[in-house]
Prior knowledge:
Helices cover 42% and strands 15% of the residues.
Amino acid sequence: MTGMLHALEAVDMINISLCFPIYDKSRLKSGVCGGHMYFTFLRDSVEEYSMEMINSFERILEESQPNIVHIWGTEFPHTTAMLLACRNKGILNRTVIHLQGLVSVIAGHYRSGIPDKYWSLKKVAAVSMEEAAAMRVKRGKCEIESLKMVRYVIGRTTWDRACVEAINPKVHYYSCDEILRDIFYEYAGLWRYDTCQKYSIFISQATYPIKGFHYFLQALSVIIRKYPDTQVFVAGIDIVNVEKKDAYAVYIEKLIEELALDKAITFLGSLDEGQMVEQYLKANVFVLASVMENSPNSLNEAMLIGVPSVASYVGGICDRIHMNTDGFLYPYDEPELLAYYVCKIFENKEGLCQTLSGNSVKASLQFTDPEKNRKQMIHIYEEISGQGEPYAV
Length: 393
């Protein structure tokens, strides 16, 4: 969102207002910042919308008077609430949803690879994985309601288009890729095999089952037999050493113990964009082990910088990596194959790493090209607005 916002700020004909959720009622406010009007709304539930939320959106629409309402994401019920507000105000036909993930589809993959004894385990955690999945199913119902209601959708992969058109065959689908944050373009193509940390793996997320860290650990146990010096660096909180573990963390902790992997894994904590760049440049391999994804920014970032990448063949990822050319793909539930491809990169026969790196940068620049994606977004706005005059979003 930040990349696209900055790209559109330079367009005189577009005036953008911003609307975002707040969890603390005392912090609700509206105003002007950075040349943009901004509005906040209270998100008091992640499972359902309320009439109060719809009314709040109606007041925001009355004040901002947009020609187009551009909604980013469908994963939470405030999307449905905004659509209902737009319908009440007679502007639903000038509203567009920008797809991120699709929780109604992803919820069905939440349990993949999780043993029964951990699935309903609460232990220290207040919420079991079973309950977390049920919450996503509930959110998915709002998502489906939203997608059936809306006329226009923006997506970026074959997967998200197929999923949306299965829900609403009448939807008008626009394709528009993402614009990454500026720093990733500054470091585009700067990864080098000679300066990376050999036998190191970088993973950007591992906090909940969809990210497939449990499958990755099984692969890691195979990799370490061949490359005992392998080190894994994981962005995000150390889920196994927090005071209150959730059920997934309990399972991960047990896996690490059973597979004797504790000395090979370092959790890095939350990283800002500069620290993410450092880890991409340092890594010998970037691994994305998700059991379902659309088109994750982490993979786009890694490919743009040039890190050799191995990713699961799920969702929209197959639109991003060309097998054997700019990375490797494997079935998400086959950790042995993941291990094989990581080891193949570690071997680096005939300069494989640098070849994959160069090809991935070229591929990434094609679908993250800021100017191309900015022009496409303007084209989408022009079509939806149905006018050549200046308009507000």
